[in-house]
Write a sequence for this structure.
């Protein structure tokens, strides 16, 4: 049996999405910037997709910028807000995705900003009092970049509460929503977050396309220089069929969200119960409680064992794809900055299993069976 439990790294393309993209790939090949009929047809597809995304997020099309994915959207939100507002302070956490951490650290290394990190507890929750202190302690406007759900451990942040605090200090708020976009109903009218991001491949859309939502009260400059695409902010011919696929994937995700959430949650619970029953000493990294945890992600902390280093490898040879960290670490045993950030026990191996609408209960059972075999000491 082959089992793919690495859906936080990327998800399989939905066939309905593929069917929507296919005619665009084959027939709508015009350049959206061309003014002739072929170009206008492609332009119409891009703008229809933009409208679809905007409606789903309860925002306006002019607030949606298509990008190459989550990384570019995060980089843009941070770089552009620091530049546009001449910000000198970024507040974030040690367990953000590298797209946020590396961008913030580079700005700090260039002497443009100081980066402050909000204290975390051992489950990855932020200390809101400390966030308040950091905002209060800076003389000037700050950029706060706090992810919605952590991609490795699944712990959710209350971004509504963060937005409220940011409002009190007139801070700019960016949330890396890559892991929750398509899995939670983001409603921008009820969330005072200035920058939100999405990556289509995390919700059964194509790879290499994402978006940045910039609240209309905030301005950003040009972030890719070239032609006048994306309302003169991001030059480059649009990835038309990718953009169409992204919008279709998000539409499906919103349409079926409740059913998928219930179903995926049941798989995660099955895995948690099975692990507790069958692996003595098993624990979990992050907060696994409903409502505090991303339902697609389960980070398992295996008890110390000499073979721990081989766990991912052994799963792999049994046909099971899981992850030892974020996608950058899939299949590798590189230390996880997230597990380090929450001070997880270094003698225990953390493995992320992540599920999607195509995952099956029998796959959970197979993984449990194999884990029991792998964890069992060999007797000669
Ligand atoms: C939380 C988070 N942010 C950003 C990214 C980067 O997205 P992309 O791979 O589309 O660039 C990822 C992808 O793993 C992620 O999980």
């Amino acid at each position: 049996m082959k089992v793919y439990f690495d859906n936080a790294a990327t998800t399989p393309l939905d066939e309905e999405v593929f069917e929507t993209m296919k005619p665009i790939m084959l027939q709508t090949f015009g350049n959206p910037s061309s003014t002739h009929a072929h170009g206008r047809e492609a332009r119409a597809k891009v703008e229809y997709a933009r409208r679809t995304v905007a409606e789903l997020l309860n925002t306006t099309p002019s607030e949606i910028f298509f990008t190459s994915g989550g990384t570019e959207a995060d980089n843009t939100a941070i770089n552009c807000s620091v530049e546009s507002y001449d910000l000198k302070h970024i507040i974030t956490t040690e367990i953000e995705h590298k797209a946020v951490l590396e961008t913030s650290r580079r700005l700090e290394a260039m002497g443009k900003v100081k980066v402050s990190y909000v204290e975390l507890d051992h489950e990855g929750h932020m200390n809101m009092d400390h966030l308040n202190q950091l905002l209060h302690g800076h003389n000037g406007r700050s950029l706060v970049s706090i992810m919605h759900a952590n991609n490795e451990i699944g712990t959710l942040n209350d971004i509504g509460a963060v937005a409220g605090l940011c409002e009190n200090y007139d801070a700019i708020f960016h949330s890396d929503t890559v892991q929750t976009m398509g899995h939670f109903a983001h409603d921008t009218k009820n969330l005072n977050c200035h920058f939100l991001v999405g990556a289509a491949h995390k919700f059964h859309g194509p790879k290499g396309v994402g978006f940045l939502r910039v609240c209309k009260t905030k301005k950003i400059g040009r972030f890719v220089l070239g032609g006048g695409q994306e309302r003169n902010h991001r030059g480059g011919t649009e990835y038309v069929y990718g953009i169409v696929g992204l919008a279709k994937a998000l539409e499906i995700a919103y349409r079926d969200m409740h059913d998928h959430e219930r179903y995926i949650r049941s798989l995660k619970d099955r895995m948690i119960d099975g692990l507790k029953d069958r692996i003595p000493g098993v624990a979990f990294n992050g907060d696994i409680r409903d409502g505090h945890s991303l339902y697609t992600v389960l980070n398992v902390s295996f008890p110390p064992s000499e073979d721990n280093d081989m766990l991912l490898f052994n799963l792999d040879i049994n046909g099971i794809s899981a992850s030892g960290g974020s996608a950058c670490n899939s299949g590798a045993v590189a230390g996880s900055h997230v597990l380090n950030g929450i001070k997880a026990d270094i003698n225990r191996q953390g493995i992320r299993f992540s599920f999607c609408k195509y995952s099956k209960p029998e796959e959970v059972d197979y993984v449990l069976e194999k884990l029991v075999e792998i964890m069992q000491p060999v007797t000669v």
Residues 15-255 form a domain with the Aspartate Aminotransferase; domain 2 fold (CATH 3.40.640.10). The CA atoms of residues 196 and 374 lie 41 Å apart. Residues 69-71, 74, 97, 99, 147, 151, 176, 178-179, 199, 210, 326-327 surround pyridoxal-5'-phosphate (CB under 6 Å). The chain has twelve helices and twelve strands.
